[in-house]
Amino acid sequence: MIFSTVNIGLGQDVGQELFGFDYSTIQGIGDTSIEKYSIDTYLDTDYKKTNIGFGFIYDNYNFLFTNAPFYTGSELYTDLHTIGAKLSYTYLVNDTWSANLFVLPMISSDLEQKITNEDIVINAKATVTKKWGSGMNSSSLLLGIGYDTTFGVPQLIPLISYQKRINLQWEYILGFPETYINFHHNTRHIISAATAITGLYGNLSSPFYDEDIRMISNTKLTYKTAATSLEYKYRIQPHWTTVVKAGYSFYNELAILDKDHTTIYDFNTDSSFFITMGLKFNLNK
């Protein structure tokens, strides 16, 4: 989601992020407002030509429908939970080429009923990276393919990004589904501007009744958005960093689908501003 604080920046400035907590809110996308609470952990290690990482995520989305159309009432659709374990693997082919694999199986559900296969979502991406130069004159190109919910429902997406380190203070990435630029004022202050396309997809195990009073089970709540944002990171002390991000979500689409991904109800969402506040614990190498 656009609400998640992205750990971007140069490794020697912030360090490896071990733990993070975020609170986000987006108000007035039509008749709907969203709050999100997020916890993220990650740890990686190098071994010969490989790097292996492992972590956990937990997100709690609170949807407030001020004009809900459901006969069962909006309370069945106010909470969505995502719980996942992420695994990353990088193999250094040589000094300039590397192959990367990332897998994130997760439960994405309202957790109102017993967990089934309908609640499981698999995210994955496979990429290769080519690097040029080093230090203040470095750049890299990443190409690959992913399978995730960037467009609101699980599907294959292309991945491409070109990263360029301009000097000690500036770097940028041009790519899809995210583009950003970083300004490092010093080791304690980082300002980032980004544009990204992101999505959410979860199972609603509680029964849904449409306008014809037909009961539909295991409907899906899907949300996709495109947004631009400005983020500020302040390093309080060597291991703790605060994050504030504000932005404008210029495209939002929120809907309820049946099991075949046919739209049952479209919320006719509008564009809106959003804000994120977070706290990160970093391990400096």
List keywords for this structure.
17 strands, globular, 14-stranded antiparallel barrel, two-stranded antiparallel sheet, 1% helix, mainly beta, 285 residues, disordered N terminus, single chain
Topology (elements, then pairings):
Layout: H1 11-14, E1 16-29, E2 32-47, E3 50-65, E4 79-92, E5 97-109, E6 120-132, E7 139-148, E8 155-165, E9 170-176, E10 178-186, E11 189-204, E12 208-209, E13 215-216, E14 219-237, E15 240-257, E16 263-266, E17 272-283
Antiparallel strand pairs: 1-2, 1-17, 2-3, 3-4, 4-5, 5-6, 6-7, 7-8, 8-9, 9-10, 10-11, 11-14, 12-13, 14-15, 15-16, 15-17
Describe the 3D structure.
The protein is an all-beta fold. The chain has one helix at 11-14; strands at residues 16-29, 32-47, 50-65, 79-92, 97-109, 120-132, 139-148, 155-165, 170-176, 178-186, 189-204, 208-209, 215-216, 219-237, 240-257, 263-266, 272-283.
Radius of gyration: 20 Å
Q: What's the order of the H and E elements?
A: HEEEEEEEEEEEEEEEEE
Topology, number of strands: 17
Structural class: mainly beta
Outline the biggest β-sheet. Answer: 14 strands, antiparallel, barrel
Report strand order across the widest sheet: 1-2-3-4-5-6-7-8-9-10-11-14-15-17
Helix content: under 10%
Integer average pLDDT? 87
Strand residues, percent = over 45%
Please state the overall shape, judged from the principal axes of the Cα atoms: globular
| Beginning-to-end CA distance, first to last residue | 29 Å
The low-pLDDT segments are: 1-14
